[in-house]
Write a structure and sequence with these properties.
Among the domains are: 209 residues, Porin; 97 residues, no CATH class. It contains 4 helices and 14 strands. Strands 1-3-4-5-6-7-8-9 form an 8-stranded antiparallel beta barrel. The protein has a 5-stranded antiparallel β-sheet with strand order 10-11-12-14-13. A hairpin with a 4-residue loop joins strand 11 and strand 12. The relative contact order is 0.08.
Length: 459
């Protein structure tokens, strides 16, 4: 079983090294550093008992890796642990044992920087193993009674594992190992032909590398914790979070590092500008990934989809419509006028209608939200046409809710804005109740059917 265990460890390790890698030739992140490790796991003995029982143990280690200026490095490591081992058998009496163990070991460790995250390693060394053989009730077994002094022996130790780097100097490590002794004492017996002492261990923990100057005085001029000879992005501003190769972290993967990204968490695949915000090529206030009408002319009022507003719904947008207010269903020409009608000069709104977009684009949302920023809707001539939908005779709005205080209404409106709805607050005095209310509304829409369709999306 021991030979099979060692064979499996070596096979895994060699496979990791031989497997083709695309990583550039970087220096091992532990090179020239002191590494502190803490771990917890379990131990299982190979004893005369038929059924080994796993028990818990804790480990700690301290090592130093030589600065080899390579993806490969070797070092010296010392570690120790404390726990228990156990087993049971239907033939041997007593039929259970529960031995307390502790150990110290030192040796040579070899590690390979396989990728930016995975670093497999091998350890070989020797040490001292202490134990007190007991049964499951805590009573000492025969060997402890015969040898009442310090029970210990010399062991050989072999380990294999993987460091997974979370950040530049901190790794999560997994390892498995074996302690080999020359006696047959762990289970409290000395028997001819019986199994010699051996304990298998497995643990998971963390390793922290203390940054410093390695051999040859390797420096870290930008102070990001990555030595200059490993730093792919020298000159990183102070306080910037970096990857293991010293480059600023870009959490949303849009090509703009977090420290410069004014719109973090941009959706994958969205084209962004130099600030990391969704691009708005035609400058109409609607980002390209939502804009259904690209290349809108400058200063043209648009709806939430980035398309020019067409209040009378005749198919000709207002900025081209020379006969605004055409009744529904009337066929018009390219100027938006019914046949036989002379064009009139339209009165265009003075304020450009723009709409905030979803929170993930981080478009500026004002602290005070008023309907005046949205266009020419006239609340003084409005009426309720169906359910939550109101109209002034030209445009339509959806009333989401109504509140007695402006701060409450504005909080609701901001929440709707972050979800992508073009919400605003409309102040209204209700004479019936002799009270002023603040209505949270969404708009504007060109027709009743458009407002009804959108109303189904709003919760």
């Amino acid at each position: 079983m021991i030979k099979k265990f060692i064979t499996v460890i070596l096979t895994i390790f060699l496979t990791a090294i031989i497997y083709p890698q695309s990583i550039q030739k970087l220096k091992h992140p532990f090179s020239g550093k002191v590494v502190l490790s803490l771990a917890g796991g379990g131990a299982i003995p190979l004893s005369d008992y038929g059924t080994p029982q796993p028990k818990l143990l804790g480990e700690g280690g301290l090592g130093y890796f030589f600065d080899l200026n390579s993806k490969h490095t070797i070092g010296l490591q010392f570690f120790g642990g404390e726990g228990k081992i156990g087993g049971k058998d239907g033939v041997i009496i007593p039929n259970k044992f529960n031995t307390s163990i502790s150990y110290l070991s030192g040796g040579i460790i070899y590690s390979y920087f396989m990728s930016e995250h995975f670093t497999p390693y091998l350890f070989a060394g020797a040490g001292k193993f202490w134990y007190v053989p007991k049964d499951d009730n805590g009573l000492k077994l025969p060997n402890s009674l015969v040898n009442p002094g310090d029970l210990s022996e010399f062991t050989f130790n072999f380990r294999a594992g993987i460091d997974y780097f979370i950040v530049k100097n901190l790794s999560l490590n997994f390892n498995a190992g074996i302690h080999l002794g020359k006696n047959d004492l762990f289970d409290g017996f000395v028997r001819n032909g019986s199994k010699n002492d051996a304990v298998l261990t497995a643990s998971i923990g963390f390793s922290f590398a203390f940054s410093g100057r390695g051999r040859g005085g390797v420096s870290d001029k930008d102070g990001d914790g990555v030595p200059d000879d490993q730093d792919k992005c020298p000159g990183t501003p102070p306080g910037t979070k970096v990857t293991v190769d010293g480059c600023p972290i870009d959490a949303d993967g849009d090509g703009i590092p977090d420290i410069e990204d004014k719109c973090p968490n941009t959706k994958k695949g969205v084209f962004v500008d130099e600030n990391g915000c969704p691009a708005d090529t035609d400058g109409d206030g609607v980002p390209d990934f939502r804009d259904q009408c690209a290349d809108t002319p400058n200063d043209v009022s648009v709806n939430m989809f980035g398309c020019p507003i067409d209040r009378d719904g005749d198919g000709v947008p207002d900025y081209k419509d020379k006969c605004i207010g055409t009744p529904e269903g009337i066929k018009v020409d390219e100027n938006g006028c019914p046949k036989g009608f002379a064009p009139i000069t339209p009165i265009m709104p003075k304020t450009k209608i723009t709409f905030p977009v979803k929170k993930e684009t981080r478009t500026y949302i004002p602290k005070t939200i008023a309907s005046t920023i949205f266009g020419n809707y006239n609340p003084n001539s409005e009426r309720n046409v169906r359910g939550r939908i109101w109209t002034d005779g030209n445009s339509y709005v959806i009333q989401h809710s109504s509140w007695r205080t402006r701060p409450k209404a504005e909080r609701i409106a901001r929440s709707l804005l972050t979800k992508g709805h073009n919400a605003f607050v409309q102040k209204a005095y209700i004479s019936k109740f002799r009270r002023t209310y603040y209505r949270v509304r969404i708009g504007y829409f060109n027709s009743l059917s458009e407002a009804q369709s959108y109303s189904r999306k709003v919760r």
